Amino acid sequence: MRLIGSLSSPYVRKVRIVLAEKKLDYELVLDNPWDAGAQAAAHNPLGKIPCLILDENEALFDSRVIVEYLDTLSPVGRLISPPGRERIAIKHWEATADGIMDAATSIVQESRRPPEQQSAAWVDRQTGKITAALAYMDALLGEQAYCTGVNLCLADIAVGAALGYLDFRNPALDWRSRHANLARLAEKLDGRPSFVSTRPPAN
Q: Quick check: pTM over 0.85?
């Protein structure tokens, strides 16, 4: 398998963490979807990363689709429960975490526009989404060891990737000072080899 992506994308990182937790071999193909001639566009009509190329040259895209497929490839460390309420809970957590990533990446893209074209109202709206989602997840997590109880699952990986992206791109948000439950979870996740090996570059 080949994974087309970048080292800074939180969606790509989510997939890479799953690959590491599942102990699946793959080749990482670095790509910038904003560049002319980006490889992702040749496989994904939306031109987005991550994009997973299977051995049959079939392409899967959208991180939620990719991680669901990857979890079927090996019985090692099942990350998504069978259909039922627990599975819905996991996907609910993932959707919330992905929403944080959506808002945070939108802020990053807005900051790269010429100053006279940037919208403070748009940034405030996205920041509001992040703030509300963090408070929601912190309350939902409570004193649990992991998002859905006592075992690591996809929910934790998605939340960890989202929180890591906030640290990477928006450290001034200082989310830890207001969300002790999430801070505790993040500290636990950040020590896992899958998280250590997929940290975004410092620059």
A: yes
Give the whole-angstrom CA distance, residue 100 versus residue 82: 25
Q: Which domains does the chain have, with CATH numbers?
A: 2-71 (3.40.30.10), 85-192 (1.20.1050.10)
Encoded amino acid at 154, one letter: L
Contact status, residue 138 vs residue 180, Cβ threshold 8 Å: yes
Q: CA 110, CA 97: separation in Å to the nearest integer?
A: 20
CB contact set of 116 (below 8 Å; sequence gap of 6+): none
pLDDT along the chain (203 residues), means of 10: 97 98 96 88 94 94 98 92 95 98 97 95 98 98 96 98 97 96 98 97 78
Q: Is the backbone peptide bond immediately before 50 cis, with ω within 30 degrees of 0? A: yes
